[in-house]
Amino acid sequence: MNAAEQAKSLETTSKIAAVVNLFKSEFPDARADLKPWANDPDTRDLVDPDSIDIGFHLPGFSRRFQSRSILLQIRFHDDGMTGDRRAIGAEVAGFNHQGKQWRLSTVQDWQFEGDRNPVPEVADKLKAFLRQAIDLFN
Q1: The whole model's pTM is what?
Q2: pLDDT tens, 98-129?
């Protein structure tokens, strides 16, 4: 779900801002998009209500990223008994004008999948960023 829609409390809003700042500290040219999903019925059916989704747009196509836009999805699980909401993982994917080029999920084996993956330096920074982003919410 769009991060802008998930920012319902001061605590969540602060954590979303911290995630954006973490990403921008590693990749200062990126521009954050707190509403990466369109607000139409077809898209709404695909959106995960248990995630916070943030887009990051680069100034142009990046050879280092092998993409122009990055979509971050932090996934949560609500414990019905205690009411706790915990981040259980995250996924990041790179897109260009041809669609998704790669993805990295913390739920699986932390390996990039796709036709064109980021260069090793960017890949390592993305993995470190995902660890910090998950830690922020837990």
Answers
A1: 0.89
A2: 999 999 999 878 999 998 999 999 999 999 99
Q: Provide the token pair at 98.
A: 């041809």
How does pLDDT run across 24-57, given as a tens digit for each residue?
999 999 999 998 876 656 556 566 778 899 999 9
The size of the chain, in residues, is: 138
87 and 107 in contact (C-beta within 8 Å)?
A: no
Question: Cα Rg for the chain, rounded, in angstroms?
Answer: 15
**DSSP H/E element including 72:** strand 67-78
Q: Is 100 exposed, middle or buried (0-12, 13-18, 19+ CB in 10 A)?
A: middle
Cβ density class 15-50: b for 16+ within 10 Å, e for less: bbeebbebbeeebeebebbbebbeeeeeeeeebeee
